Task: structure prediction
Amino acid sequence: MSATHATAATNSAGNPSAGSAPSGNRASGRGDARPIAFVSAQALRERMHEAVNDPHLRKSFRGAMDFLMAKRAAQFPDESELDSLRTLSEGIRQYSLSKLPDLLEQLEANLTRNGVQVHWAADADEANAIMLGIARRHAAKTIVKGKSMVSEEIEFNHAMQAAGIDALESDMGEYIVQLAGEKPSHIIMPAIHKTREQIARLFAENVPGVAYTDNVDALIQIGRQVLREKFEQADIGLSGVNFAVAETGTLCLVENEGNGRMCTTVPRVHMAITGIEKIVEKLEHVAPLFSILTRSATGQAISTYFNMISGPRKPGEKDGPEEVHLILLDNGRSQAYADEQLRKTLQCIRCGACMNHCPVYTRIGGLAYGTTYPGPIGKIVSPHMMGLEQTHLLPTVSTLCGACGEVCPVRIPIPELLVRLRGEAQSKPHDNPVMVGQGAGYSPLVSFVWRTWARIYASPGNYRIFSWLASRFRALTPSRQSGWTAARTPLTPAPRRLRDMVRDRQ
Amino acid sequence: MSATRDRILARLRASRPAQPLALPVLDAHYTPRARNETVAERVARFRAGIESFHAEVHLASEGDWPALLAGLCANKGVQSLLYGADTPAGRRLDASAFAGTTLRPWAGEIEGLKADLFHRVDAGFTQTLGAIAETGTLIVWPSEAEPRTLSLVPPIHFALLDARAIHPTFFDAMRAGNWAAGLPTNALLISGPSKTADIQQTLAYGAHGPKELVVIMINTEGDVQ
Result:
């Protein structure tokens, strides 16, 4: 374990992407905001295989998920309170979605009245173009970012870097992940896959003037020092939104670190970006949603800060941004909205409890999925954002054990939606599909096998003939049975059917 | 971009339910769970909550809180305390003198004192609108007199709380104050000093905001020790 003092120069030399990075970034005195590697969902199987064979990764995730599950459970000692709160939260989300277009217009009108500029974006390119336009108008060199999964979804950092603007993550976990040139592996705890020692090395190698230490308090203080300077100097602050309140025109942000408040308070311009679904009508609707969010996510009774922003600095006020922008992003959400069952995907409040309780996520970690949103929620939301061509395997990365649905604070029937998406992905392509890429996973052979299976098992007569043939000709059973025999002995029918044995006894 | 706006809205309108669902009734959840607690019980619950988030709570009276604050500043080595001048609490501080601590009323816009705020001010002082017993949370509404960064940038945040303004839940606080009728530019709930558990789930305080949160609670009804 090297405890050497590394300079910025050795960092650049060791970083393959540094050559293409705009030089302005290196002057920022930290590791470059490296372009994020784009990963295709088709390489999913390979990545999963790698992940399950990585004992360190397995240990990191197992430990972290056990910790988060225990903390969540401790927040809900009263089953009936949890049950009532889930029902209320589900009701609020479904009510809000049932009025979504009206609420979006109401939100826009009230935000505009409050002095916030509202923009609409159909996809990632439009969203990035809007924000780049704002940044250019202010001749911005540095954008300091609060944690925002939507900004990850649109590859915001990459788009800004391509335009020569430094987009710097300020959430400690996101900062670590950005220094490492990686993507978040969890929507709430982005650096959950990294050990303390790995982070210590990362800081020593990438932050100028920092000696190796694996003391957590010391590491956090290093991050604090570096980022405070950025908050003070940045031209623009970017944030996500946890809840947008239509009746008051208010953007609510949930956080512990204070970086979200810094990003939305200190720079002259604040840009917020959110999916169109994160909206509630009444201010009081945020009270139960906020409570169930923090308790489900990290097992906290409440986060350190709940930041409610209703406008830019008013005349007479002494601080706060002079301009506030909100970007409302569709990016496939209206596709999910169009179908009554798939619409439930949009109830999500992004707590991450489904991934914390998922046996697959716990074993492969968040990066193996190759999508911005990993775990169960990622499997049901990514197909709308990216299309089924790229994501048709995702819904199959599940044991359908039901844990995700059981813990979901807004009762999204995730297993049901996974089965639905499998159907959309693997059914024969047809006209008027509900989803982009419908039928992308269609295989005539697999389809034929399952249709035949259904025909046999749905009819007692067919089943009787099939089982008679199977037991008589069992010697002909193939010894290699696709994925089954990769780790198991072949399945062979019994020499005598249960039906035959029962008849003998009678 | 208004074409995008119209397309998104049209798409949503084409597929939304014919009738919106019924408005959820929040009281059905909150009313049966209301506690009939005394002010003292509520104060104790607030205190236990916020102390569990690493905040300090000190009891004071209407008359002696500036003296208590002076003592706390001296103990913590606060050389420079920034506060909002034009408030009831600020006027009390205007009339006070702390040994060893420079009392500095906020003057001008942030652009003029950013460097001081980030590098030279040791502590910020604000009033609070109230608090929440259920979670141990302060309600802070920044204003022209008490800017947003007072409770954010300096390493220590002193907050003055009137125990009579502690509400049972966040929901109760919103309802009682009719927040929906009008919110300030920025409204905050604060539950302890800033913190993070982003490195191997190890909790560390003093992430990007204050490292310490100190609550001075005025309890006119007394007897909550």
In short: Chain B has a mean pLDDT of 95. The CA atoms of residues 142 and 185 of chain B lie 8 Å apart. Chain B is about 30% helix and 20% strand. The longest helix of chain B spans residues 2-15.
